[in-house]
Amino acid sequence: MKMKMKLPGVSAGLVTSLLLLLSTTTTTTTFAQECNRDFYVASQDDLTSISRNCSILDGTIYINGTYNGSFILSGITSITRSLRVAWWDDAPTPQISNMELRDLQYVRVIELTSLTASNFSAPKLESVVTLRLGQEKLGSEALLPSLRSGGLMSIVGNYSRVVLDSLERVNDSLAICTMPYCDESMGKSIIDSPLNVTLPSLVTANRVAIASKASIVSAPKLESIADLGDIKSQMLRLTLPESPVSVSFPLLESLDGSLEVEGAIERIDLPSLLNTSETISIVTSHPLNLSLPLVSSSGYIRLIGEFESVDLPDLESIQSMHIRSSLPLDCGPLDDRFDYGGDTAGYFYECESASGSGSLSSLMRVDAAIGVVIGVVESTVFLGCGLW
To answer: With contact defined as beta carbons under 8 Å apart, do 77 and 49 qualify?
Structure first.
C-alpha cells in the first residue's frame, strides 16, 4: 500500500517547481571555452566577441594598426602565445586610449613597445615569459599588481608609476627605464620622467637594470642576483641621474654578478653583502658617505666621484680596488691596510682624493693592466642600460 504525505500549506505545483530548480542547479557545470586560433582585432567589438566565445586562447591576438579607442579584454584567463601589434611595412600605429586585461592570469608574450595608451592594466596577471612594454605619453602607468614571476621584461617610456608589488622572481631580466637612450625607436619622445622604483616582494633575479630620475630605489626582500638559467651574465645596474637618490637592498647577500650604481647617490644601504667575486662599481655625483660590510672581494671594487668617506671595516682581502674622490677623502686608513708597496701579480690598489692624500705608486706600477680593466667596466656602465 502506497502512502501519500501532504505538506500543510504547500501546493503540489510549488513542490514540483522547487524540485525542478534544485535539479537544474545541481547538474549545471561551467566549462572553460578553449579557442585554438589567432585573432585580428580592429575594435572593441572584436574583443567583446572573443570574450563571449573564449576563456582560454591557444593562439595570438594581433592588434590591427587601425585600432582606435579603449582596449578592454574580459573573460580571457590564459593566452598561450602572445598579445602584440600586427606590424607590416608602413603600418599605422594603433591609437589605444587605455588598455585593460581584466581577467588575464597567464600570457606567454606581451609585445607592445609603442603603446599610445597612458594606462596599461593587468590586475590578475601572475606569470609572463616575455613582456615588452613601451608607453610614450607623459604620466603613463603600468599596473601589474599580481605579477609573481617573469622572464624577459622591459618597461620603457614616460612613466610616473609602475606597480610590480607581487613580483618575486625574475628568471631573465627586468629593465625599467624612463631615459631617452633606452629605446632608439622612441627617440626624443622620452623626456627623463621621474619614477621611484620599489619592488617590495622581489626575492631573486638574474638581471635588473633601472634608469630613472628617481629619489628612491628599493627592494627590501631581494636576497640574490643569481644564475637562474642559461643566462651568461648576472647584474644589478642602476643609472639614477640628477635628483639625490636613496638606494636600499637590506637583504642582498648573494651577488653572482656585478653591482653597478651611477648617479646622484645620497645613500646606499647594503648591510647584508659580505662577499663578492664580481665588480662593484659606484659612481656618484652627490656627496656620499659609503659603508659596506664586505669581508672579502675577489672582484673589482671601483668608487668614483663625490665620496666624503669610505668605510670598509671588515674587509680582509681584495683583488682590485680603485677609489678616486673629488672631495677631500682621507685615504690614509685604506692605504695602511691595502697598499702593500710592492709588485703583486694580479693585485691592484689605488686611492686618490682632492686633498692629494693616498699612494699613487701602485697606479704607476700597473698602469697598463688597470687601464684595460677600467676601460671594460666603463664601456659597460656608461653606454646606458645594456639590457635594452
So the answer is: no
